[in-house]
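The freezer alarm interrupted the setup, so I double-checked each line after restarting. Inputs confirmed:
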Amino acid sequence: MASSSVVPVVLDVDTGVDDACALLLAALHPGLELRAVTCVGGNAPVDAVVANTLRVLDAARRPDVVVARGAERPLLEESVDARHVHGQDGMGDLDWPKSQREPDGRHAVEVLRDVLLDAAARGADDLVTLVPLAPLTNIALLLRTYPEAARGLREIVFMGGAAHVGNATASAEFNVFHDPEAAAVVLDACADLDIAVTMYGLDVFYEPRISREEAADLVAGGGHGAAELAGRLVAFQCDRFGSDSATIGDAGAVCAVLAPEGVQREKLPVRVELAGTWSRGRTIVDRRDWTGDLSHDPHGQARSTIDVCLEVDARRYADLWLDTVSGRTS
Ligand code: BDR
Ligand code: CA
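Predicted 3D structure, all chains:
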């Protein structure tokens, strides 16, 4: 049972350079109890995602954390990956040691169900915060197959979507674009099951950044531990984008669990665009004054109203990550 100040979390990942940054934070911060990590195809094919996730948890000296393989492909879309951004192995091609550990024998969806039902049985103090940092395929399958697992959830804080910008296309963010049907199912199921949702999207995603110098300091200690891996991941991104700093990306969503006051958020109705020539996969965030007369809007208001992160205290989140991966947090 988690102590009242420690938040039980499960991460769903497509590791992924910035997923690796998020895993290091979740595995090492004393304010979180990382109960499991589930993997899905996204930045790289799912087998590479599993292998990368195990390597990161080895670097963090967390062989106790269950890792499970999940969906290989989106519900409907063809699989695409983002190895042009994350490297051929999906995690920066760092030649980092392979893990000797095997993933759990259960499918990711079964691990999610088991962890959440177990939390539900233990009571209100033990509810889990689910942090999807990848296409939402596993989460859609979970909530439609085992809706009773929602009893074990405190909330979902996911990286995906945006109110204003895209990256995979001019309209759409990668995680939602990769599996738009899954994202739509998750929002719908969360409305049905009364699950609180926070969207940590592209409006804030790029802002918490680590400099090349800070990365070099992390690498300097060597030893193939968390700090060295963290520094090398940031350095890879600086090189890839020809920049003097790099975002911690998905790790910001974990920061939003640890320090929720570090983001400014608004409760807003959100839909996922499932058609559209140029806009498929966009999160349509309704920022109108919908206390007014919407009777002429044939669509009406989205049934899913969620917390949308619109601004972030970027230096605070960067420091939270840096202090944790360098071992300065106690
Ligand atoms: C998201 O897409 C992936 O490439 C990153 O890991 C992150 O989860 C950003 O759009
Ligand atoms: Ca990711």
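Quick read of the result. Residues 16, 18-19, 43, 82, 85, 133-134, 159, 167, 173-175, 249-250 surround beta-D-ribofuranose (ligand 1) (CB under 6 Å).
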